[in-house]
Specification:
alpha+beta, Ribosomal Protein L25, Chain P, RNA Polymerase Alpha Subunit, Chain A, domain 2, 2 domains, 6-stranded mixed β-barrel, 4 helices
C-alpha cells in the first residue's frame, strides 16, 4: 500500500480579509473537494513548501483536523497557487479520495540508459516527461521507468512502448512520443551568404536606369 503523510489542517472563514490575515501568520488558505462536501481549511505554510516538490508529487495525505468530516480523510494535493514574486504559497486545492475508486493523475516517465544513437552523432530529444494514467489511489506509482539504451538515430519511444503494470490504465494516446534520437543538423554552409553580394547587382542596374532615363528626357526637352 502506498505510504501516507499526516497533515494537520484546521477550519477557516472565507473572505479576502481572512485569507490575508492567515498569510501574515504563515498559514495557507485551502479547500477540500471531491469525495466529501467542500470544506474551507488552512494549513501551515512550511508544510506546503515542504511537500510542493516533485519528490512528493501524487503523495497521499491523511488529514488530522478538528472537523469531523475532514479528520482521517485521504487526499491528493492537486493545485498550489504561488505568489509570482515571493513564490510563497497563496492557496491550495486538496482532492478528497474514495480509495475504492480510480483516479486520474499525471506520472513522471523516468528514462534510463544511454541511447545507442548518441555514439552515431544523434541527439536525444525528450518530448513528453509525463503521461496521464487512471489507477486506484493506493497503486499510484512514483514514476514509470523506460529503458532507452536501444534507441538508434531516428528511433523514437512511444507511450505504446512503455511497460505498464496491469492495474494501471493509460489515458495518454499510445502514439504519443516520449523521446526520440534526432539526426544532428550540420551547420549551414557559406554559399547562401556568398550569394548576398550578388543580390546588390540589380540595385546598381536599377540606379543606372533612372540616369539613362533622365538623359533621354533631357534630349526630348531640346
Amino acid at each position: 500500500m502506498k505510504n501516507r503523510i499526516d497533515l494537520n489542517v484546521e477550519p477557516r472563514e472565507t473572505g479576502k480579509g481572512n485569507s490575508r490575515h492567515l498569510r501574515t501568520e504563515k498559514k495557507v488558505p485551502a479547500v477540500i473537494y471531491g469525495a466529501i462536501e467542500n470544506q474551507n481549511i488552512h494549513v501551515q505554510e512550511k508544510e506546503i513548501v515542504k511537500y510542493n516538490v516533485r519528490a512528493y508529487e501524487n503523495a497521499l495525505f491523511t488529514l488530522n483536523s478538528s472537523i469531523s468530516k475532514v479528520n482521517g480523510q485521504v487526499v491528493l494535493m492537486k493545485t498550489v497557487d504561488v505568489h509570482p514574486l515571493s513564490r510563497r504559497p497563496q492557496h491550495v486545492d486538496f482532492f478528497a479520495l474514495d480509495l475504492t475508486k480510480t483516479v486520474r493523475v499525471d506520472v513522471e516517465i523516468k528514462l534510463e540508459g544511454k541511447p545507442a544513437g548518441l555514439a552515431e552523432g544523434g541527439l536525444l530529444n525528450v518530448v513528453n516527461r509525463t503521461i496521464e494514467i487512471e489507477v486506484l489511489p493506493t497503486d499510484i506509482p512514483e514514476n514509470i521507468v523506460a529503458d532507452i539504451s536501444h534507441l538508434g538515430v531516428g528511433d523514437a519511444l512511444h507511450v505504446s512502448d512503455l511497460k505498464i503494470s496491469e492495474n494501471i490504465r493509460v489515458i495518454s494516446s499510445p502514439e504519443l512520443t516520449v523521446a526520440v534520437v534526432n539526426v544532428q543538423e550540420e551547420e549551414a554552409e557559406a554559399p547562401a551568404a556568398a550569394a548576398a553580394p550578388a543580390a546588390t547587382t540589380p540595385a546598381a542596374g536599377a540606379a543606372a536606369a533612372p540616369a539613362a532615363g533622365a538623359k533621354d528626357a533631357g534630349a526630348a526637352k531640346k
